[in-house]
Design a protein that fits this description.
Blueprint (H helix, E strand, L loop, with lengths): L1 H45 L4 E5 L5 H4 L6 H23 L5 H19 L17 E7 L12 E7 L1 H24 L8 H31 L12 H5 L1 E5 L11 H8 L3
Antiparallel strand pairs: 1-4, 2-3
Helix pairs in contact: 3-6, 4-5
Length: 269
């Protein structure tokens, strides 16, 4: 019994060890598969037209590590930098918009509604024609009716454009009230215009890609030393493949390509 019990304990320990390895390796496999799909989708589906991939030589690990820093410590430091940059990008993307932009859009909306709902005065003075109110075509869902085959139970009705008429008659007052309401919500100290938002996002994106390139260089250096470090599942494909995008010129297009086709291939510049 003692011998058989010892065999059972060894078998149980081996089974538990295999289960732990399966869980660990399954997590690594899932992470690797996510990254593989990300890179494959980028190469096969997301690359813009009219670009070429050019190799970017990675920096040597000796230049990327700080004094006394190990490869794993260097990767951890760079990942902290990436997380900080990602937070900066999130702040840019969620920054409020300027009050002036919201007010101009509100005024444009009132002007459009007023133009749509203005009374039809053509000919009232010159020809004595009747004054008519602008109409709106409304769609309504119908209940308790049997719809026709392959048709939705909806109906349409023409009615006076009351909202437009109100905007036509009280446009300045509505603009003022909307402007006051928007001013209470505004935060122009943190607001970013579209141009500023795009500029900052592009700069942060470039900086993040540069840090990711250094991170990948250290991971490859660690792998060469037999000290494997897992990549992040959301690692940039450009950083992982050590490539950059370069826009092709018309002269670099394949021979026999028409100018129109080349412009379409190159896409918006």
């Amino acid at each position: 019994m003692i011998v058989e019990r010892e065999k059972l304990e060894r078998a149980t320990a081996a089974h538990e060890r295999i289960k732990a390895l399966r869980v660990q390796r399954s997590a690594k496999w899932n992470l690797t598969e996510q990254l593989r799909r990300r890179v494959a989708d980028w190469v096969l589906r997301e690359l813009p037209g009219g670009v070429a991939l050019e190799v970017v030589e990675p920096e040597p690990a000796s230049k990327l590590l700080r004094k006394g820093e190990t490869l794993s410590e260097g990767v951890a430091r760079l990942r902290a930098d990436i997380a900080a940059l990602a937070e900066k990008l999130r702040q840019v993307e969620t920054a409020p918009w300027p009050l002036s932009l919201a007010q101009s859009r509100a005024e444009a909306l009132i002007d459009w509604l007023a133009a749509e709902g203005a009374p039809r005065l053509d000919g009232a003075i010159s020809a004595g024609a009747d004054i008519t109110l602008a109409k709106s075509n409304l769609q309504a869902q119908l209940f308790n009716v049997q719809p026709a085959p392959n048709a939705a139970p909806i109906g349409f009705v023409d009615t006076e454009n009351v909202l437009g008429l109100v905007c036509w008659a009280f446009g300045p007052e509505l603009k003022a009230k909307l402007g006051d309401a928007l001013a209470k919500l505004a935060d122009d100290r943190r607001a970013l215009s579209a141009e500023r938002r795009e500029e900052m996002a592009a700069r942060i994106g470039e900086e993040m890609l540069s840090v990711e390139r250094r991170e990948c260089a250290l991971i490859f250096a660690a792998d060469a030393r037999g000290e494997p470090i897992d990549f992040r599942a959301d690692t940039s494909p450009q950083a992982l493949l050590a490539v950059t995008l370069r826009t092709l010129t018309l002269a670099e297009m394949p021979s026999g390509t028409s100018r129109e086709h080349a412009i379409n291939f190159l896409g918006p510049r």
